[in-house]
Amino acid sequence: AVNGSRLWQSLMDMARIGATPKGGVCRLALTDLDRQSRDLFVRWCEEAGCTVSVDRMGNIFARRPGRDDSLPPVVMGSHLDSQPTGGKYDGVYGVLAGLEVVRSLNDMNYVTEAPVEVAVWTNEEGSRFAPAMVASGVFAGVFDLEYGLSRADLDGRTMGEELARIGYAGDREVGGRKVGAYFEAHIEQGPILEAEGKTIGVVTDCQGQRWYEITFTGQEAHAGPTPMLRRKDALLGAARVVDAVNRIGLKYGPLACATVGLMQIHPNSRNVIPGRVFFTVDFRHPDDGILKAMDGELRAEVERIAGEIGLESDFTQIWYYAPIAFDATCVAAVRKGVERTGHSFRDIVSGAGHDACYLSKVAPTAMVFIPCIDGISHNEVEETTPEWSTAGCEVLLHAVLDRANA
Amino acid sequence: AVNGSRLWQSLMDMARIGATPKGGVCRLALTDLDRQSRDLFVRWCEEAGCTVSVDRMGNIFARRPGRDDSLPPVVMGSHLDSQPTGGKYDGVYGVLAGLEVVRSLNDMNYVTEAPVEVAVWTNEEGSRFAPAMVASGVFAGVFDLEYGLSRADLDGRTMGEELARIGYAGDREVGGRKVGAYFEAHIEQGPILEAEGKTIGVVTDCQGQRWYEITFTGQEAHAGPTPMLRRKDALLGAARVVDAVNRIGLKYGPLACATVGLMQIHPNSRNVIPGRVFFTVDFRHPDDGILKAMDGELRAEVERIAGEIGLESDFTQIWYYAPIAFDATCVAAVRKGVERTGHSFRDIVSGAGHDACYLSKVAPTAMVFIPCIDGISHNEVEETTPEWSTAGCEVLLHAVLDRANA
Ligand SMILES: NC(=O)NCCC(=O)O
Ligand SMILES: NC(=O)NCCC(=O)O
Asked: Is there a contact between B253 and A191 if contact means CB atoms under 8 Å apart?
């Protein structure tokens, strides 16, 4: 019922924008390349007869009318921004699977009861601007608009400035309207489905997250004449925290994840003892109590390590959300879609955060996962197959019809 | 016999070029700011009646004729480039103390037997281009010219290109001429003189150095859905090496120094497991055998750590020189200078590398140290006093006269 090769072609066309040599994409949020991908999406949606609107966080909504246009819409969506060395499918798949649902409905001249929308959420990745999912968070009332617009990249440019610069600072109010149901299709980004030979993941839950920013300040000094015992080496402190973060992840394993992904060393010169290091920590667990225990251990380790080297430490938890259970009715709609299409499946907990996490705060929500090769994502080699892509879109179509005609 | 306030004023004037908010300078080798400092030095030297020439490595020589101009010159010098967050004295002091010797000789209408020169060596710091002291190394025949000109910064720009760009690719052959003696005045950059209340350090030796570049390659992957046990986290590996480097430094203490000063994380995004990390190691010791033992331990640790995480490792020692003993006659000339001027002193081993290390390969060489506050260098707060600055210049003058009239 969906046109899988059209969907695949659209994925490949979109992947040309910001294409990297190793087959991935670099399309950081609110860059010129992000604008190009938005422009292409908007053009495709208008060609599909949708009405496009943009809100003040730059979230884009392409609407296909329903028979009763006063009903709250069923929304599908995800994001078009990527990691610096991201893949072709992370986010884009959910957006273009949504568009393919609309195109398929058009092909069938099918009129749903409720309107159907395809959404693009701004800065889902949280790479250029932290935290992740900030614009869907504003939509859901988790963050206020001012907070969203003032998020700044490492060069100090804010989301508000950059939205205006690329022409996607829309005038629509962010959120504050009823959504009948939200469905997000996505690659799994982990190894489970492929390892078990399942085509569809029926996502029942998302694990919780805590993100931290830590700055250690010691004292810059010459690497040659400064005795080891006189040093206050900020990088030595950060290195010990990296190892401690790994220990915490292993201790609360196998479900815990603990990562230091970003580090900036100052002044970053071979023969200077680093005087200041800024770095981040990313903790995840499906059990909120364990996430809290990990938090406690991190705080203790950072304090201990700063103390043993004589560093000043600036420690901030910049993001937290508790594990999320999706809506039973929407999950059931996904499961019915799997049954109708006959694909193999299993229930799954999402390891990544998704805009669906925040949408779930204001709308009945569920997600559809498809496998990705070797479970690799946030990597230019990220890959899935046309068959899996088509299967996920079929399930999405059925889930949407279930809710839009309810 | 020298004009200490003129010297201090020149130091302050030079420090305006690339001045930083915290009172230091940022004047990386072969930047526009480096050119400005060279231009000012050349102007001052010409005003002092010197003849200025520049060699193909951008080394500058300002010559004051001797009574017998066919005698090999006595050369004083150091460097004008700085660390990214460097101080006002590191290098500059030796250059301007040399200039002050020339100015004082002029004031006294004093004609030395041999000619006297003030040298500025290119890229002593080794911060923008590694290794350090590369242009004095070419002068001394330790490196060939091609090697020197092809050193590249982290953005791939070479010293040859940058010398041409700032107009300091001279036409004089690099080295290949006789130097009667070389004297370098410098701040100590360590805590010993100040702690012991001595004004002058008579530098007898320099410790040896080994510099390394290490790249760990693992696999970029998503920080959320990637189980701890499936990870190949390049930053975890680098962090463990940072800790191992510190352990090695402590183990061979109190004289060993071991530092990781520079690290680049790829892709450096909060929710991506780092796939590649490039970092450097700086080892120092006055005993070559111990330096060799440290090298062996580093190699073993890097191999062990890469193995335990499953990382590919690219390990290169990019620089090595054995500890250096300065020339007995030149050291004696410095000591005589201290005795004549009556300043307190002690013999000292240099913890930092200096252009004098390479000059010692082709000329009788010694150094004069003055204290710096709290032993702090390679830091914007680096400080010395006008009294110490004057004292060091007096000693330099006497040492130079001793050799130029020998
Ligand atoms: N799906 C995805 O990659 N989201 C980015 C936010 C996160 O790190 O969980
Ligand atoms: N004197 C000085 O800071 N030299 C830089 C080279 C080194 O690190 O030893």
From this structure: no
Q: B290: which 2 tokens?
A: 């111990």
CB atoms within 10 A of CB A264: 17
User: In whole angstroms, what separates CA A64 from the centre of its chain?
Assistant: 25
CB contact under 8 A, B379 and A220: yes
User: What residues of chain B, 38 to 97, have a C-beta less than 8 Å from chain A?
Assistant: 83-85
Residue owning tokens 């300078």: B25
pLDDT tens digit at each of 406 positions of chain A:
899 999 999 999 999 999 999 999 999 999 999 999 999 999 999 999 999 999 999 999 999 999 999 999 999 999 999 999 999 999 999 999 999 999 999 999 999 999 999 999 999 999 999 999 999 999 999 999 999 999 999 999 999 999 999 999 999 999 999 999 999 999 999 999 999 999 999 999 999 999 999 999 999 999 999 999 999 999 999 999 999 999 999 999 899 999 999 999 999 999 999 999 999 999 999 999 999 999 999 999 999 999 999 999 999 999 999 999 999 999 999 999 999 999 999 999 999 999 999 999 999 999 999 999 999 999 999 999 999 999 999 999 999 999 999 9
- The pTM of this model reads 0.96
DSSP string, B219-242: B-EETTTS-GGG-B-HHHHHHHHH
Residues making up the annotated binding site of B for Zn(2+) are 79, 90, 125, 186, 378
Q: Of all protein residues, whose CA lies closest to atom 7 belonging to ligand 1?
A: A353
Nearest CA in chain A to B274: A261
Among A108, A140, A98, A107, smallest CA distance to A400 is for: A98
Q: What residues of chain A, 343 to 372, have a C-beta less than 8 Å from chain B?
A: 350-353
How far off is chain A from B171, nearest CA to CA, in Å?
A: 31
